Amino acid sequence: MSAKMATTGLRFYMVPDAPEPVATFSHAVEAGSFVHVTGQMPTYPGEPERLIADDIKEQTHRVMANLHIVLKGLGLEWSNVVRAGAYLTNFDEDYASFNEIYSSYFPADRLPARTCIGVTALARGARVEVDLVAFRPAAR
Question: Which of 60, 63, 56 lies closest to 41 in space, CA to CA?
Fold first, then answer.
């Protein structure tokens, strides 16, 4: 993992095994105990030009896999996630399938707070994007 510490105490991370950014951003920024993970697309690490499947289920699994790569690269797990933002381009058509897959990544009694929003478009023609906020407990 590559981290740059700003003079403000913020840490900016690029995770080597994560997908290449589709725009200008860090994979994550740590501010105090909170780690803000940039929204991940259903793209493939190491294959930025590979076409993404049009299927919402495949795209959701790929997005969640990409998020997990970033979390692991920062020494975090799904259990550290406190908030998620989800963005769907075909909200009415994809909401149920997205929820089924998304929820399978978390224990039923440990679901993070979440907002799910219908949007008109996402980068690379994606149907779904998810961002996260994770909590890093203080070292004991």
Answer: 63
Structure tokens at 114: 């979440």
SS3 category, 4: strand
Which pTM was predicted?
Answer: 0.92
Instruction: Say if CB 42 and CB 53 are below 8 A apart.
Output: yes
In the DSSP assignment, the letter for residue 124 is: G
For the chain, first and last CA: distance in Å?
22
Kindly write down the DSSP assignment for every residue of 9-74, as one continuous string.
S-EEEE-TTSPPPSSS--SEEEETTEEEEEEEPS-BTTBTTSPPPS-HHHHHHHHHHHHHHHHHHT
> Using the 8-state DSSP alphabet, how is residue 133 labeled?
E
Tens digits of residue pLDDT in 119-132 = 999 999 999 999 99
* Domain architecture of the chain: domains with CATH: 2-135 (3.30.1330.40)
pLDDT of 39-90, one tens digit each? 999 999 999 888 788 999 999 999 999 999 999 999 999 999 999 999 999 9
Under DSSP, is residue 127 helix (H, G, I), strand (E, B) or coil?
A: coil
